[in-house]
Hints:
The protein has one helix spanning 3-27; strands at 48-53, 65-67, 70-74, 79-81, 87-90, 96-98, 103-106, 110-118, 121-129.
Amino acid sequence: MRPTARLLLTLRALKQAILGIFLAATLGCSHSSSPDATPVSPATGPTPMTLRVSEVSDLTKKGETVQLSALVAFSDGATVDKTGSASWVSQNPGIATVSSTGMVTAVEDGNSVITATFQSVAGSTSVKVDLPTAPAH
C-alpha cells in the first residue's frame, strides 16, 4: 500500500473517532469514567395536570362490583384514560374495596372514598354501599 493511501485511511479513522467523541459529548453519553460525570435526563413529555375518577351510583348488593375509570388531562390538552396505570386506594376497605385496576366491590353498609393516583396527580370519588336490611319477623 502506498504511503498516501495509508495516510488517507489513517485520516478517515481519526475523523470517525473525533466524530464519535463529539457525538458522545453532544448527546450526553454517560459512559465516562469521570466520577463527576452528570447523566443527561431524558426529554420529558406533557405533564399530567388533573385526574378525574368516574362517579359511582349506590351499590345495593354485597359483592356488587363497578368499574371506575381514571381520566388524566395533560399539559398539552390531551385527556387519556390511565385506569390501568393508576394506583387505586379505598379510604374504607371495610365498606368498599378497590382492585389495582379500579374495580370497586361492595362489602358492607356505609361510605368510602376511592382515590386514583397517576404520577403527581390524584382524583377521588365517593362510594355509598346501601345494602337492604333483613325483614323483621
